[in-house]
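User: Here's a structure from my thesis project, written as structure tokens. My advisor, Dr. K., wants to see whether a designed sequence matches the one we expressed. Can you design one independently, without my sequence as a hint?
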């Protein structure tokens, strides 16, 4: 069971990782991430319990979290503070009353792909800079059974607090890694990669793929670079005449559903 410590003083040095959360969202956390809310904490405890360094909860939420907290490694500190003290530490009214600080995983992209089974679905991302979209894509990846997510160097951080929240914790459950050239790495690992583009030569409804497949998504507006599209099979989603744009997170849900259904 974790250790519960009652906190009366908002200046307690043990709460330093939780101080000024929004400012640290921008400044970075030196290898740590912050998870917010009960559902996200449940996912974190289930998927990466050893990565959780500590938990901070409003004291009135503590009793209702007994079963969730029981999944933490023995000795993990849980700090229970008054709502007022927690708000002061965090820097804004934190209505959910639940935060956790965890250590970021370090993964090698090639090793991640090598460890996937013979039948696997991977998501590749290029230039995704919006944290809401990043969280939505991870949520869809989890919903449709993707085994991993590859990100190019220009993508934003999946473990940004808002991304984790929008993903409903999926950013903590789906393993991801960065790769300088996701397309080349996927090809080397035996994956058939399709790239989503309004200029695709294949309509999604007609697409069939093999047991090891990957779907590549780019940022809204510019889409995937031509240099990437030239190396992949380009796929489009049929839309009403005069319209050729979908939110990238929505696109990922449609495509991953199709690929997951086809693999079954």
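Assistant: Designed independently from the structure alone:
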């Amino acid at each position: 069971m974790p250790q519960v410590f009652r906190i009366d003083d908002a200046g307690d040095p043990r709460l330093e990782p939780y101080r000024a959360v929004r400012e640290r969202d921008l400044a970075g956390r030196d290898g740590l991430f912050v998870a917010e809310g009960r559902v996200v904490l449940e996912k974190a405890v289930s998927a990466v319990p050893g990565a959780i360094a500590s938990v901070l909860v409003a004291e009135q939420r503590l009793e209702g979290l007994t079963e969730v907290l029981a999944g933490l490694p023995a000795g993990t500190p849980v700090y229970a503070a008054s709502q007022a003290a927690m708000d002061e530490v965090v820097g804004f009214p934190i209505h959910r009353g639940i935060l956790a600080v965890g250590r970021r995983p370090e993964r090698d992209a090639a090793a991640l792909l090598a460890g996937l089974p013979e039948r696997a679905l991977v998501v590749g991302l290029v230039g995704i800079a919006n944290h809401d979209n990043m969280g939505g894509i991870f949520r869809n990846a989890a919903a449709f059974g993707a085994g991993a997510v590859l990100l190019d160097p220009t993508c934003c951080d999946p473990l940004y607090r808002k991304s984790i929240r929008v993903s409903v914790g999926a950013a903590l459950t789906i393993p991801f890694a960065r790769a300088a050239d996701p397309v080349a790495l996927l090809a080397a690992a035996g994956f058939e990669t399709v790239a989503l583009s309004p200029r695709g030569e294949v309509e999604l409804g007609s697409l069939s793929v093999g047991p090891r497949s990957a779907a590549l998504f780019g940022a809204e507006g510019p889409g995937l670079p031509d240099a990437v599209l030239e190396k992949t099979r380009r796929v489009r989603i049929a839309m009403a005449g005069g319209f050729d744009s979908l939110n990238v997170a929505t696109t990922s849900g449609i495509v991953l559903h199709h690929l997951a259904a086809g693999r079954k």
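When you compare it with your expressed construct, this may help: The radius of gyration is 20 Å.
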